Amino acid sequence: MKKHLLSIFALILPLLTFAQDKGIDEVIDEKFGDATGWFVEAIFYQIPFTDTVSVYWVLFPLIIGAIYFTIYFNFINFRGFFTSVNIVRGKYDELDHHESLIGAGDSTPGGDNIETIAIENHEGEVSHFQALTAALSATVGLGNIAGVAIAVSIGGAGATFWMIVAGFLGMASKFVECTLGVKYRDIAEDGTVYGGPMYYLTKGLKEKGLGGLGKVLAVLFAIFVIGGSFGGGNMFQVNQAFQLVENITGGEQSFLHGNGWAFGLVMAVLVGIVIIGGIKKIAKVTDKIVPFMVVIYVAASLFVIFAKYDMIGSAFAAIWNGAFSPEGIAGGAIGVLIQGFRRAAFSNEAGIGSASIAHSAVKTKYAASEGMVALLEPFIDTVVVCTMTALVLIITGFVDPLNPPANDAQAILLTSSAFESSISWFPYVLTVAVVLFAFSSMISWSYYGFQGWTYLFGRSKKAEYTYKVIFCIFVVIGAAASLGSVIGFSDAMVFAMMVPNMVGLIILAPKVKQELNRYMAAIKADKS
Hints:
two-stranded antiparallel ribbon; 4 strands
């Protein structure tokens, strides 16, 4: 392990030689912006509708796809909600019991995949509830804390309404992709599971006679999930963590000011120790810490909200009115909608495909059962937690559409300041929570990216360590690069993942309906 950590340092240190006339942060930011600007512009190309309204083309697959799945599955996001809760409660555990599944596919490369530690036998199996909380630990975090602040700062209080709508619609998308993730997963002889869009695009579309298209889409997704792991799952996380740590230690007077690369270097070492040295034992600790921090954050939100209970009604009124009749918002109601949907997609990852990698390892003989569990994620992540964050910002008076923050960095600190107005010491707790959320998300996303990497380059040790060293380098780049570059690149890669995934989901939707009917019939037979 020391050898690999030294390799990381050897690759990072040459970057310091560029900082002669400029700070290292500025140099990295400039190089990063030059390297990724073309991709961000392509993904976020805006289709002009009027002189003042333009819509990102990548939002159409998300919105249209989610609406299509909601209608095609007869509003499964609402109709199946209580069934999903019952599955998580363990009501249908006996229905799911089965003997060990037959292994298929390649053997595990290293055996330390956080998403695939569930072995296909009854002893020591991960339950539906454990799978849900593990997946939520990767999604509930920075998107809810910082992302909401950015959305309501740019789109006003009304962006919250469209985030909630996107959350409800996203439940259907999440159901489809996680059902497919289980249905088309590979199970190695030792029980390790490999799943996700790469596999259901390849195998599912081959069944439809579209094998060539499936391989192309799978390769594209693998490339994008690797990029997403470097961007949204890495640089975005460490950048936001650095913003809060710098602020809590003095802002411009902080010893970290202008030295984001140093913070990134420390995080890179910590992440490197985990992903290079093995995740199994450490995951047992983080799986306990992260849910605890989620509870602390939710409790603090409720405290702030109920401390000013007399303003709850006016806050909801501002959200409703701002969604349809916004004042001073660029693009009007459409501009508000775009901000809401854009932030919700990054927060809950519905339709992006990443969650299907994590959910594919759960032990079940009914693929739709895990899809039903997965649809609860956008509800908890976006409809509940994001709404509470927005209410805290609105109730405490930290959202002013007519006078938004001058830049994105200020918007990130809004959430911390809003909590501080009611709980003076909470920014310290929030900073710790953000670092833990970032650390957890980075580890999870490193395995998402690693799955895509192994799909493209094989499961050898050389391929494994190559990816992990590069991932650690991007930790440093993310902490040092400006927020504008990081958030643009991370959003672009996340939305790029959605495109091939959505194509596959729509084509394979009938397969999901078959799985859903089979599972619901089994539940009905069990009741009779």
